[in-house]
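Hi R.,

Quick one: here's the LacI family transcriptional regulator sequence you asked about.
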Amino acid sequence: MGYTIRDIASRAGVSKSTVSRVITGKGFASQEAREKVLKAIEELKYKPNGLARAMVSQKTNNIGVIIYRHQSSLRSDSIDETMIDSILKKAKDLRYSVFVTTDGEESLNAADFMLEKRVDGLILISSFRQKVIDYIDQFHVPCVVINGMIEKNNVFQMVIHDAKGGRYVADHLYQLGHRKIFVIIGSAEDKTHRMRFQGFSDRIHELGGHIEPENVWYSHSTSFDEGYQLLAKIWDQLVRKKPTAIFATDELLAMGAMKFLLEKGVQIPKDIAVVGFDGTDRSKMFHPSLTTVQVDKAKMGEDAVYHLDQLINKKDVKPTKIEYEPTLVVRESTNRP
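And here's the predicted structure, written out as tokens:
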């Protein structure tokens, strides 16, 4: 049977407004009235009794995960599901329920949604603007950031060492003998992709090489279609300049580019080598399989929940930045020119 606030009020011998104040936590209610209402809620098994208990314990055992994207829709090609699966599994082990949503880089809507749900803590993933973390910080909700690159010292940050991954790509291509390389960068506004390119470019220069500015291309998004369309756009220049390798700072861009090249009869890696960055399962299933930089994102997801739990339970842990070491996985898409 479903009970109402009226039933709770009758059982507890208080007014409906008192019940409402106790349940919402807004407005004054005496300790005696609170105890009567909470007892009535328990006895009648009123649905919001979890919330009522939360008001006593100050915990809901819910955490929120917000994935910030240039485009806020959650698509299968825009998020590494390995990380999300790992977050969900670790959260279940620690007896948390999880709300997962997406939002645009500058939007506060998802943060408001999570705060209204009274989550115990938040995991913020990927690209968002500084104003988002500044806004959340006002509410003193424990927070862990994955690959967000924010300028704040009091937040637990977990980042991929993107610049080092770019350096590994440079070493690999240079050692194979590639000197004329085209670069596709995920987005000029995304610090993650800028760092990947910066590490790559710096290492090429250290090795005595040079990346010509006109051979560097920026995409509007990190999608398979964008990689395909960008290659179509620069095809004439590619034919004219005859680069021996392409480095894309996102593997979906790399695979989109590969599809276009293969349709044009270009043999990979015989005619041109291709390297990506991210290391999802898609890269090994593509043909030819993609040489890429990968990070253990399952561990990042698990660690994020662990550290958030430590913060929620006020363990003696100080916010810090943890950098995760990337690994270059060499597959079929690279060889000597």
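The longest helix spans residues 224-241.

Cheers,
M.
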